[in-house]
Amino acid sequence: MGNEELQLIDRCLAGEQAAMTEFVERFRTPVFGLAYRMLGHRHDAEDVSQESFVRALRSLHHWDRTRSILPWLLAIVGNRCRTLLAARRKRPMGQLITDQLADTAIEPQTQTLAEEVSLGLAGMRVEYRQAFLLFHEQELSYQEIAEAMGKPVGTIKTWVHRGRRELVERLKSRGVVEVT
Amino acid sequence: MKCCDFELRLQDLLDEREQKSLCAADLPAPLRLHVERCDECAEVLGGYRALLRVLSSARPSESAFRAEDIVELTKPAPRQFRWLRTVVPLATAATLMIAALLVQWIAAPVAVEQAGLTPSDTALQLVATTKFDAVLPSNADPRFAPFATPMEINERSLGLMLNLAGLGPVTFPAELLEVQLIEKPSWMVQVTDGLKPVTERMTGTLNALFRVLPATAAEKDNGQGASYDRYDPNQRLV
């Protein structure tokens, strides 16, 4: 973990407001990105992101300084997302996907692909989805994901592989696969 | 290379994160050769390639929440009310403790010496002849004869030890209802009256317990159902 990050966290622990603001800005993108992909809804993702940051800043003294801060922070986000998903009433999947796609900056020809991937993610088991997103979008290592989710590395690897396989099967079945 | 091995190797490549697009030209030779011969695996490769393309191209736009709002939420409660967090629980605990002490003081038996009274012969006679309504079954075990032994007496309470079938000796406190035989200060009578619902309930409970006790032979013969007309510790069961 970088010295600069450690110093930032020490300043946060000292109660420096400017340091806390900097902390939020530094980790805003990965936190919101994970929440958004997990939940598929912007407002929910923003609520969860804010809640996660508040929790993280309040319990920063519990963080293990020998480990990276990002997996710890994303673990909080993942837990909040899973809690919200468990409590959420069923929403029409179409609306969720529309919410997500309306905000993404992607080329029109990949819209269908992105839509299918989003639908596939939404229908995936929550654990697979979280592990997959932490690996491919947050680019954490298997070890870091295992720490964040509190599971063995082997389990995380299996979840990521299964997540990929499910998405590929979906793309194949929907006929949007590129021909080599 | 077998098809199952092909997908496993693809997964390993993705784990290594060296492949950004899975182009055929970038694949290791065994995989490339297998794909050229196997249409099914070529389709699988296409699926993984499409997946990577989506993951690399799509990025959500920035969130709208303000960092300052979050920092504001992490601030502790205003200082002027923080003392309440300590004082309120202490005050609650103190109130409960005082209330418990008051109840205990009110319910505590007044020392006979303080009241200047001693149990009269009438009071002792009352204890000896206290009635208990009980329905006793006929299949009682004579080894478990119920009896009531006055363990302790003052002008307000009586400790009863009952030998219940299957349970052995059990001690119950019982309030004497007929306290007018013993002289008391008027305030004590008022307190006793106030406790009457409690004492009546306790007596009712005792009586209910006795209803499940085994019957005496005499009562069974009389066809009365069980009851104690007179308290007799020497009664035995059939």
Overall description:
The complex is a heterodimer of chains A (about 180) and B (about 240). Helices cover about 75% and strands about 0% of the residues of chain A. Chain A is elongated, with a radius of gyration of 17 Å. The mean pLDDT of chain A is about 85. In chain B, a hairpin with a 3-residue loop joins β3 and β4. In chain B, α1 runs parallel beside α3 and α2 crosses α3. Chains A and B meet through α2, α3, α6 and α9 of A and α1, α3 and α4 of B.
Give the gist of this structure:
With 180 residues, chain A is mostly helical. Helices cover 74% and strands 0% of the residues of chain A.
* Largest sheet data of chain B: 3 strands, antiparallel
Mean pLDDT across all amino acids of chain B: 66
Could you give the order of the helices and strands of chain B? HHHHHHHEEEEHHHE
- Share of helix of chain A, binned: over 70%
> Percent of residues of chain B in helical segments?
40-55%
What is the terminal separation of chain B in angstroms? 91 Å
The chain pair forming the largest interface, with residue counts per chain, is: A-B, 48 and 36 residues
Query: Segments of chain A where pLDDT lies below 50 for 5+ residues?
Result: none
The coarse silhouette of chain A is elongated
How many DSSP-defined strands of chain A? 0
Number of strands of chain B: 5
What share of residues are in beta strands of chain A? under 5%
Radius of gyration of chain A, in Å, reads 17 Å
Which structural category do the helix and sheet elements of chain A fall into?
mainly alpha
What structural category arises from helix and sheet content of chain B? mainly alpha
Q: Radius of gyration of chain B from the CA trace?
A: 42 Å
The helix/strand order of chain A is: HHHHHHHHH
Strand order of the largest sheet of chain B: 2-3-4
Question: Oligomer, anyone?
Answer: heterodimer
Main sheet specs of chain A: none
